[in-house]
Prior knowledge:
The chain is built from 1 helix and 15 strands; from the N terminus they run H-E-E-E-E-E-E-E-E-E-E-E-E-E-E-E.
Amino acid sequence: MNTILRRVSIAGLAVMTSLSAANAFAYGAGDWFTHFGIAKVSPQDDNGHFDGLDMDVDVEDKTGFAFTFGYRFLDKWGVELLAAEPFEHDINLNGDKLASTKHLPPTLTLQYYPLGGTQARVQPYIGAGVNYTHFSDEDLDVGSLDLDDSWGAAGQLGVDLLIDDHWSLNAAAWYLDIDSDATATVGGQDYDTTVHIDPWVIMGGIGFRF
Length: 210
């Protein structure tokens, strides 16, 4: 009888330990988290045209370090802020690299996790929110360039592949509505246009849950 009780006790302890580990593994309400890795900013084609200069604007891709910081206030709902080092983009005018600019695109999204609160190792999510883009260090070889800061909508898709209680692999993509009023000053005369950047931001990296 003692042997049977001992075996039952050991089995019960094993089940309890397994359940406890599974519950700790579940991502959900109250979690603070961060993602960090490499992001590629890919603007759309045909970004604008300076009519007075008869010049097409083409903003080139750029890759750099990016990170996010977020909070899950419910099992299936959270918020996340995207930040990065300044991205410096070359700007082609009629195919020639004549300009450049740096920008910071902080983006805040409200996220939905369909498998939040479960022990699923694959945690997809979708988000929507707002983007603010600050331009700086504009340069134009044949004059001067000014790009106004931009506010716009943002959409997001992502997935966490959970490794353990704290670490995960992450892949995410954002679509950002970035439209900037631009002024090129050449020969003392101003030329205005709207530059439609509207990039996809693709990021791959590591996640950590606090």
